[in-house]
Specification:
Elements (H helix, E strand, L loop, with lengths): L31 H24 L6 H29 L2 H12 L5 H17 L3 H10 L5 H13 L3 H13 L6 H14 L2 H14 L5 H13 L3 H10 L5 H13 L3 H13 L6 H14 L2 H13 L6 H13 L3 H11 L6 H13 L3 H13 L6 H14 L2 H14 L6 H13 L3 H10 L5 H13 L3 H13 L6 H10 L6 H14 L5 H13 L3 H10 L5 H13 L3 H13 L10 H6 L1
Helix pairs in contact: 1-2, 1-3, 2-3, 2-4, 3-4, 4-5, 4-6, 5-6, 6-7, 6-8, 7-8, 8-9, 8-10, 9-10, 10-11, 10-12, 11-12, 12-13, 12-14, 13-14, 14-15, 14-16, 15-16, 16-17, 16-18, 17-18, 18-19, 18-20, 19-20, 20-21, 20-22, 22-23, 22-24, 23-24, 24-25, 24-26, 25-26, 26-27, 26-28, 27-28, ...
Amino acid sequence: MAVTPGLSVKVGASSEPSFLRFHAPSNRISNNKAMVSNAVLSFSMVRSFKGVGAGKVRNNNPGSIAKTDRRHEAFAAQELVDLLRDSAARGLIREGKSVHGLLLKSSFGDEESLRLFNHVANMYAKCCSFVDAWRVFDEMPHRNVLSWTVMIVGSKRNGLFLDGFRFFYDMLVDGILPDEFVYSAVIQSCIGLGCIELGEAVHGQIVKRGFWDDVIVGTSLLSMYAKLHKSEASVRVFNAIAEHNQVSWGAMISGLSSNGLYLEAFQKFLAMIAQGFRPNMYTFSSVLKAVGKMRDDSKGREVHHCVMDYAMEPNVVVGTSLIDMYSKCGCLSDARSVFDRNFYKSKVNNPWNAMISGYTQSGYWREALDLFVEMCQNDVRPDLYTYGGVFSANAALKWLYFGRQVHGMVVKSGNHTRVLSLNNAIVDAYFKCQSLEDARKVFDRMQERDMVSWTTLVSAYVQCYQAREALSIFSQMREQGFIPNQFTFSSVLVACACPSLLEYGRQVHGLICKAGLDDDNCIESSLTHMYAKSGNIIDAMEVFEKIVCPDVVSWTAIIYGYAQHGFPDKAVELIQKMEQSGVQLNSNISLSHLICL
């Protein structure tokens, strides 16, 4: 399998590799600089011993001296390994380079040198200096399977997924047979590339090499298939694993949940419990997410009982997932009970965010803002997600003064003022509070904008009956290279719903047809409304008749059009047709209302 050499695909950092055991430094070597000193001393001991030993070979047992020499060498090497592990874990590249320099001046045996330089390459890779890791790898006179594993995992960690696959290919060319850790690492590269074909090719080799039932390899494979949306293949791999562990069960449940197979995820969770495996916090989080999506509080309570059995309700990840699940199931009192029991005095903001979001999504906006105030009083620091929920609730309540106060908090924090999604939420909140001036100030100061930003501002001016300003913003948006979506077009069509702007509306209709959005439900209703409101009943009816399944909005638009422009009989006829089609009559439309028109 040929892979283009040197081509790098940088996507993003990934998880901690598991093939190198990390030992936390002991108190004896807790300070990195002290560790370097210890290592230098160890080298001095080895060198001095070698010098003395060389002069005494004739008078003493050479085998005894060589054995002692190897012990000192192994001791010195272990000191350096501990140093390199600590530097890698803490991202201390300067200290790691010092150890590397020390190694270059030393003389270890081949076996210890290979071990040490593997750790040097791993240190550089973990410290985000993959070029140095690659240089160390290239200069190694000998390599083993761990050397290649370091480079494959390092490539993945630094987002260079194609390079990781290239190392795997070169490893095979060099005649080095991969082990379970190599296969696990290269599968992660396939996930990063989003390439199911490469993953399937690796899977084929795994089967040929007899690793198909290995739990480490199998867990990586089923995760790959799940993340690349091949759920059936993921389940087949899971079923082929000889001996499952907590991780393989968790990966399977997470994969099913993330692919929308919520009931299957719940059933796998029950099977896991039945077979005596203890779920970890991430497994509980996955199954609670699945239950929340199903909106099934009875299943949620079943999972909650398991959580209580393992005393994991106070765990932040599990407790937050419980709050979210109960909120999505409409059981806000249960969600609040979990919150109050475990997290009301917590300084971690995740449970607070989940509870605020639960209130907001259920329409309990005042409660959401009250909880936000309590959060601030408890000195819990809000983050991006907190502010998103708060501005959403504030927009619904139209509390302008409160919104300005929260906006001030965002500005003072200095951390979120450049976050696009938050700025969009602030603009939306201001315009729903009828403060176009504040909304426009925030919009104008935004260093980055997207379609949501532009559409929000266009909608704001339309809803505040400033149609010409809305159309001006629409033109600016197009000039800056943004392509309108159906929501933008719908807002613009509403702005054009008057006789004086009908011609502009026709031009927008042309743009819609070129974009291939003329059969979108939202667009069709807006076009019908625009033509009907502008008095062009013929074009309105032409658009309306092309709608496959008109909804109440489309029916209302055409009925009002006929009623407003002197055709009450036709309006009544359309109301009857609407009722016959099974669409419920809007409570705002009545015969007496039409007569008044």
